Amino acid sequence: VELSLHRAIGTWQTLQHLVLPEFYLTPSILQATASLLHLVTLSQGYSHKGGYEAAGILRDLSGHAFPAIEGFAFNCELASAIQLNRQSGGLFSRLKGIHINTSNGVDNAGVAEFARYLGQECRQLESIAMDLFLPLRFRAEIIPALSVEVLEGIFPCRALRMLSIGHPLPIVIQAADVERAAAAWPGLVVLSITVDPDLSLPIPDDIGNSWLTLSAFAQHLPRMQQLGLYFAKADIITFTGDLYPPYEFQDLKRLQY
To answer: Cα separation of 175 and 181, whole Å?
Structure first.
């Protein structure tokens, strides 16, 4: 199959978008797709099984690889993703959107390091998605939730319009964090932060965001179109009858919680 696909890709000289099954991004296939002059997006199907490096995504690529690429979605450990960018002559620095999936462990220090790397090397990014899951063998371990340090690392990406982070435990965002995020990303319209945590893990009722955080988002990011947050089950707001809050969203189309 790999040989046949490699030959076929070589004939797709006008191809702009390519989606590959989870384990098809081998060194041979990566090399073939890298030569497509008009390829705009390359996506690899997600796998929860791990073992991504066996798929051979790490490969030395020339600085002329993927000349038209704007979006890249792939399965890889975060440290290996940094290595891939270095080996490809700065591929990520030419992207508008990046989507990385990993289920080989979610070391919080590693996530923060990857976020800082994107903020330093890929400031042109408009869309960032990170799906960070735990394989079954780690379910019994106690893991901490991600801190807002992850968001801070991406603050230099001033063009950011979409940010999505999936993690087994919810991130708690304070009003001050929202204000800083709005100052860093004035064009942000889509934000989804650990909206769907792993409920098979013990998540206390008081872990999560306060509903009052919505007021901070409405104040500092009123043009938000999609917002996803996990709210603490124990957080209860009593309705006072005020139908005209001081801050309101202007373009919100979807609120996920």
So the answer is: 10
